[in-house]
Specification:
Elements: E1 11-15, H1 18-21, H2 44-48, H3 72-86, E2 90-94, H4 97-100, H5 111-126, E3 130-136, H6 143-146, H7 155-171, E4 177-181, H8 191-195, H9 206-230, E5 235-241, E6 244-247, H10 252-275, H11 282-288, H12 300-308, E7 314-317, E8 321-324, E9 333-334, E10 341-342, E11 348-349, E12 355-356, H13 358-372, E13 376-380, H14 398-417, E14 421-424, E15 447-449, E16 461-463, H15 465-475
Parallel strand pairs: 1-2, 1-14, 2-3, 3-4, 4-5, 5-7, 6-8, 7-13, 13-14
Antiparallel strand pairs: 9-10, 11-12, 15-16
Protein name: 6-phospho-beta-glucosidase
GO biological process, one term: carbohydrate catabolic process
Pfam families: Glyco_hydro_1 (PF00232)
Length: 482
C-alpha cells in the first residue's frame, strides 16, 4: 500500500554545502578551508592520504573545482528565487567557518563573511523559506589543521564554540533549525573532511579518530547549550551518514558482524549526541580497535556537558544501503557514499555504483526513531547522474524523478509506521561540485548548471524536468508524485 499522509507543517526543501557551491574561495577575507586543498578526481582521498601530503594547493598537478563552485557567492539571490519557485518550505545550507574566522582561531569575526550570510538568510526569509543551517560541513579552516593538527587537538573545542556562539547569537531570531556537524560519523572511513586528519597526522589511527570525535561531541554539546540559552525553542540537531545495513545471509556470523558494524558506523555518534552518554558497547568497540576508553583525554565536566545538552533532533543522509559478509570473500563490490561494500543482488545501482534501496529508507527511519524517539529530518538524499540537455536544450531526468518518487513513498510509509519525520531536503537541489570526486558531471539537482568537469561553461541555470515535478510534490504536500 502507498501512504502519503505528510504532516501539514512538513519541511520540504533542498540541501547544499558552502564548499561545494559558493566558490569565491579567497574573496572578501575568506581563509582557506580543508575543502580548498582537495584535488578533483575519484582518487582525491588516496592523494591526501599519501605520506607526503602537505595541505597545499598545487595547480600544476590538479584542478580544485571548489574554488569556483557554481559561483553561488555571487548568484545566491537568483538561486534562492528558483528554490522559491519550486515552493521550498526550507533550505539547508552551511556557513563556511573560514568565511567567518579565516584561520579559525581569531577573536574577531570577518565582517564581510557575516554580511554575506546576513543576505543569504534575508533572501530565504523574503520568500518564506526556513533556513536550516549546518554550522560545520566539511569545511573547517585549514589553519586549524596545519597549526593545531585538526580535531584531535582539544583546543578546537574552544575555537568551534566561539564560531558557533558567533553565528547562533547573530542569527537565532531568524534561524530556528541548526545542525552542529555534517555526517560526523563519516570520519570512520574518511576523517580528512570532518576532522582534518589524514594518514600523516593520525587519520589511520582509530584512537586518534575517537579522540577527535569526543572533542566534536563536546563542541556540539556547547552549541546546543548556547542555542538553548538564546532561545529554549531553538532546534539544534546532529547529522549522521546512515546506510541501512543487511547481513548477506542468515549465517549468525554475518548477523553478528552486521550488528557490530551498525554499532560502529550507524549508531555510535548518534548514541552519544542524542542520548548524552557513551553507549554500553563503547569499551568493546574501542578494545576491538586496540585501545581503551580511559586512553582518551576527557574530563568529568565534559561528560556532564554531554549528558545535560543532547541534540533536539536527528538529521541524516540516506543514499544507499550496505551488505555485510565476513565468511565468503569472493563477492562483487560496489561504491557508495564515502564507503564501499558488497553488491546486493536484489538492488540496482547508480552510475557511480551506489545501490538504490528505497525500502532501506523506511527501515532506516524505523531503526532511528525506535532507537532515539526524537524527531528525524532527512537532510540529504538523491541520485547522482550524468544529465545532458537534449537537442532542444531540455534536461529530461525521469530517472531522478523515479528515484525520488520511490523514496518519498517510503517516507510516507515510515510516517504510517509511527515515525516522527519533520522534513526532507534532497541533496544538491542545484547542481554543485561532488564531495567524493570533485566532479560537476555527477549531478543531483533540480536545476542544471552549465559547467563541466574542466570548469568550462556559462554557469547559467536551467530547470530540469524534475524541477516542475518537485514543485508539484511540494504544492500537494507529497500526495502528487505523478
Amino acid at each position: 500500500m502507498t501512504y502519503l499522509n505528510f504532516p501539514k507543517n512538513f519541511l520540504w526543501g533542498g540541501a547544499t554545502a558552502a564548499n561545494q557551491l559558493e566558490g569565491a574561495y579567497q574573496e572578501d577575507g575568506k581563509g582557506l578551508s580543508v575543502a580548498d586543498v582537495l584535488p578533483q578526481g575519484k582518487d582525491r582521498f588516496a592523494i591526501v592520504n599519501r605520506p607526503d601530503f602537505n595541505w597545499t594547493i598545487d595547480k600544476s598537478k590538479y584542478r580544485y573545482p571548489n574554488h569556483q563552485g557554481i559561483d553561488h557567492y555571487h548568484r545566491f539571490k537568483e538561486d534562492i528565487k528558483l528554490f522559491s519557485e519550486m515552493g521550498f518550505k526550507c533550505y539547508r545550507f552551511s556557513i563556511a567557518w573560514s568565511r567567518i574566522f579565516p584561520e579559525g582561531d581569531e577573536k574577531t569575526p570577518n565582517a564581510s563573511g557575516l554580511k554575506f550570510y546576513d543576505e543569504v538568510i534575508a533572501t530565504c526569509l523574503k520568500y518564506d523559506i526556513e533556513p536550516v543551517v549546518t554550522i560545520s560541513h566539511y569545511e573547517m579552516p585549514l589553519h586549524l589543521v596545519t597549526k593545531y593538527g585538526g580535531w584531535k587537538n582539544k583546543r578546537l573545542i574552544e575555537f568551534y564554540k566561539h564560531f558557533a556562539e558567533t553565528v547562533l547569537t547573530r542569527y537565532f531570531k531568524q534561524v530556528k533549525y541548526w545542525m552542529t556537524f555534517n555526517e560526523i560519523n563519516s570520519a570512520w572511513a574518511f576523517p580528512v573532511m570532518s576532522q582534518g586528519l589524514v594518514a600523516n597526522n593520525g587519520g589511520n589511527d582509530r584512537q586518534t579518530i575517537f579522540q577527535a570525535w569526543h572533542n566534536q561531541f563536546v563542541a556540539s554539546a556547547w552549541a546546543v547549550k548556547i542555542g538553548h540559552a538564546l532561545d529554549p525553542k531553538l532546534q539544534v540537531g546532529c547529522m549522521l551518514l546512515y546506510a541501512t545495513t543487511y547481513g548477506y545471509d542468515a549465517n549468525p556470523v554475518n548477523q553478528l558482524a552486521t550488528l557490530q558494524q551498525n554499532q560502529a558506523f550507524n549508531f555510535f555518534c548518534g548514541d552519544v549526541q542524542v542520548r548524552g552518554e557513551y553507549p554500553a558497547y563503547t569499551d568493546a568497540l574501542m578494545a576491538d580497535n586496540g585501545f581503551k576508553f580511559t586512553d582518551l583525554d576527557f574530563s568529568a565536566e565534559e561528560l556532564t556537558l554531554l549528558k545535560n545538552h543532547p541534540v533536539d533532533y536527528i538529521g541524516f543522509s540516506y543514499y544507499m544501503s550496505a551488505v555485510v559478509e565476513t565468511v565468503e570473500k569472493e563477492h562483487a563490490e560496489v561504491g557508495g557514499n564515502l564507503i564501499s561494500g558488497i553488491k546486493n543482488p536484489f538492488l540496482k545501482a547508480s552510475e557511480w555504483g551506489w545501490q538504490i534501496d528505497p525500502i532501506g529508507r523506511r527501515i532506516a527511519l524505523n531503526q532511528l526513531y525506535e532507537r532515539y524517539r526524537k524527531p528525524l529530518f532527512i537532510v540529504e538524499n538523491g541520485l547522482g547522474a550524468v544529465d545532458k540537455p537534449d537537442a532542444d536544450g531540455k534536461i529530461k531526468d525521469d530517472y531522478r524523478i523515479d528515484y525520488l518518487k520511490q523514496h518519498i513513498e517510503q517516507m510516507g510509509a515510515a510516517i504510517h509506521d509511527g515515525v516522527d519525520l519533520m522534513g526532507y531536503t534532497p541533496w544538491g537541489c542545484i547542481d554543485l561540485v561532488s564531495a567524493s570526486s570533485g566532479q560537476m558531471s555527477k549531478r543531483y539537482g533540480f536545476i542544471y548548471v552549465d559547467l563541466d568537469d574542466a570548469g568550462q561553461g556559462s554557469l547559467n541555470r536551467y530547470k530540469k524536468q524534475s524541477f516542475n515535478w518537485y514543485q508539484r510534490v511540494i504544492a500537494s504536500n507529497g500526495t502528487d508524485l505523478g
